[in-house]
Design brief:
The chain is of the alpha/beta class and 371 residues long. Helices cover 36% and strands 13% of the residues. It has one domain (8-232, 289-328): NADP-dependent oxidoreductase domain (TIM Barrel, Alpha-Beta Barrel). The longest helix has 17 residues, at 268-284. It is globular and about 50 Å long. This is NADP-dependent oxidoreductase domain-containing protein. Keywords: Oxidoreductase.
Length: 371
Amino acid sequence: METSIPEERKVVYKFLGSSGIKVSNICLGSTTFGEGPIGLPGQTDEDTSHEILQRFSDWGGNFIDTADHYGFGNSETIIGKWLERQTRDKFVIATKCRFNMGTEHNVNNVGLSRRHITESIDRSLQRLHTDFVDLYQTHEWDDGTPVEEILRTLDDLVRVGKVRYVGVSNVSGWQMQSLVETSHRLGFNNIISLQQQYSLMSRASELESFQVCKARGVGVLPWSPLKGGLLTGKVKRGVKPTEGRIGWAAESRTRDMEICPHWSNFNNQTFDVIETVEEIAKQRGRTMPQVAIRWLLQKDIVSSVIIGARTLAQLDDNMGANGWSLTKEEMKQLDDVTSTPLTYPYNMVVNFNTDRANRYLKDAYVKSTSI
């Protein structure tokens, strides 16, 4: 591990959506901090997590993402113990709420009701040892709560100073449109970010959710940029993976998680993508994770890419996505190998608008390949 990091290899800072706050273009995610209820292998203990946080700071990273649900509060607690020894204003702290945090049955301890959100933020602030969070995000859509109730509650949290900015996560296109339009109509603080799964292996959100983001100045925060380890070089055509979380997912008989795709879901395109990333990595003297993350960093809609790291070596490797660029030809090569045929109605929307792009129209539809 390098003891010092050259300035030209450190992070760069970008505006978080249309807000005035700047964040490092790589964000440290913390799903690996502490043990949790999901049962994923390879979680990091508190001491190692603190070392990773400090090393991330050495790289210039100022953006840290967590959630109350990660480790049933353990992730926030670990970050909070580290944060209280730092200069708070140097860091942009993001967390989320939505899921059940109770150990006993309580029908109101879940969702995005006013009651659950207000209770969740108070507990998150206690665990994080801070008076406010910079970005508070809904972790997922909630069919049980009116959009107006959700957004008014979040707006109230901004007004009382517990939250600085509001974001959302894991939503469909119509849900994203509903959220931003309702917020605008009622005069609430703008939604500034969408945290969404996005990678060379997961591009479906380009079709609708990201179009809303482009039209409304919402920054995208991709999670799982390596698709649960699928883009790390551990997976080869015709060989069942055995290492890391991707190996765990291959052996799993009870869970087919989106974050760790199951072996049975791999197809020829999966391996075409892996081999293309590997080829570019070898040509450029880079690692596969660096190429995969770099592809995301060069997407205009992306404000910051959320990475996870279980070791200092993994962190340093991922941070190596900075300080260089993929060529236009390499970007196109990656775009092409990861594209899938458009189904109805997207094929008609795109095909009949190829010569109708009007850059003066704020809400104009843009082809997914231009994201």
